[in-house]
Design goal:
The protein is α+β, with helices and mostly antiparallel strands. The protein is built from 3 helices and 5 strands. Strands 1-3-4-5-2 form a 5-stranded antiparallel sheet, covered by helices on one side. Strand 4 and strand 5 form a beta hairpin. The termini are close together.
Length: 127
Amino acid sequence: MKPGDELPPLRIPITRTLIVAGAVASRDYQDVHHDAELAREKGSPDIFMNILTTNGLVGRYVTDHFGPRAVLRKVAIRLGAPNHPGDTMVLTGTVTEVDGDTASVRIAGANGLGHHVTGTVTVEVAR
């Protein structure tokens, strides 16, 4: 791994099941993550993914790339456009810095509305 290395893109279909399952698994019972009617009453066109699900998907993306010895040391992400059912999020990443067994990876995840997530992940890859 070296600065400038790009991770292959990962396409994630955003399904209603993924959104609801992620919210339930992270114990986020806010109605905007599982009840389309209440989400619309609050101004959203549909339910949308919570940050904990996004965080998990970003972690999966990085560890799938770096392998079973990869350990996430820091995940710093920021949300933008919401992920709604029927869209696809495409995660991309670029190694920005390497220090021994540790790398910093700039992450972006885009959907049909724009950037859903941006941030940096620090990963250690034991040899």
